[in-house]
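pinned: reference chain
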Amino acid sequence: MKIALTLSGGGYRGIAHIGVLKALEEAGVTPEGIAGTSAGSVVGALHAYGVSTGDMLDFFKSIQLLSFGNYAFGKPGWVDPESFYDRFLEILPEDDFSALKIPIQVTATNILNGELKVFSKGPLIRAILASAAFPGFFAPVEIGKGYYVDGGVLNNFPADLLRDQADFQIGVYVNPFEPTDKSKIKHSISVLERVLKIKTASDSIKKFPLCDLLVYPKEMSRFSTFLEKDLDTIFQLGYQEAKECLETASDKIQEL
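pinned: its structure tokens
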């Protein structure tokens, strides 16, 4: 494998991944393998299937997380990830990893045994829904004998999955960590989000050296994980940062 691409989790900040993909396409850079977590798994799967960046952006804009029909009645969470299955089936009509043009590895956390699960074959949509099921907000997704939540709990930046198989690895990290103010911790979800951000930042930063090129869009900290606005701005931040990073690494990439 010449080029691998790792896409981190980050909720709606994952829209920046779409901007990065647009920059990669314009530069003629095509990954031969993808690893993704949470939002990164969703964007990665859409790209691997062949969905255009424009259609991806429209897809994310069309999803209403807090629509009444998405509530997790009788399940441990506010929103039921499986309520989005039919919507995903419209854009991924062949619901299987084997339908992808680029192989992808998707991480999720089995809360029954506390182990990381890496999905790479079989049904696709439920795997990416599980990978993106932020605990406490989304209900877990049942797959086989497992009960899965966000892969970011154990591996939010899975740069380790493809490192040994790739000549050159591009990593995209959209989950920045910066000091914050008490006034911004307003409710229980804020506390949970902050705690997970602390943990994932600590684990993820250790994996940055596994990437030959790291795209780390600036200003991501001002965007919320679940806030459905400024998506075009987030897209542009990812696009611009990737273009700048690709310019600095153009010679290395051309050698591949």
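why pinned: The chain is about 35% helix and 15% strand. The chain has a mean pLDDT of 90.
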